[in-house]
Amino acid sequence: QVQLVESGGGLVQAGGSLRLSCAASGRTFSRYAMGWVRQAPGKERELVAAISRSGSSTYYADSVKGRFTISRGSAKNTVYLQMNSLKPEDTAVYYCAASSATGSWDDLGPADFGSWGQGTQVTVSS
What we know:
It is a single chain. The chain has 126 residues and is mostly beta strands. 0% of the residues lie in helices and 47% in strands. The chain has no helices and eleven strands. The chain has strands at 4-7, 10-13, 18-24, 33-39, 46-51, 58-60, 68-73, 78-83, 92-99, 115-116, 120-125. The strands form two sheets. Strands 2, 4, 5, 6, 9, 10 and 11 form a seven-stranded mixed sheet that branches. It is globular.
């Protein structure tokens, strides 16, 4: 297990930007693929972005492709989600999550992540 703590959420106007950070504890950070999962009220959890253990491969949901960028800073056990051109429909609680699963990004979903942070609220006003 790895412990995760998110930060960087907040209120922003449509078209604005936010950067989420996730700090991971433990020396096994590089063993996990990392992802950002969001959940809006009344909706199912959605995997919006993921990054491989090495950082060389990434996944984005169609809803955020071209607007969000996931990256990892292995030296500091951190994962980031840069969110640009935010829309009201991006409003949700965003969770940082770690996965030990392997395989294709197409087969990866929220259920494949075993460690979760406490979540950070992102609210985009119109």
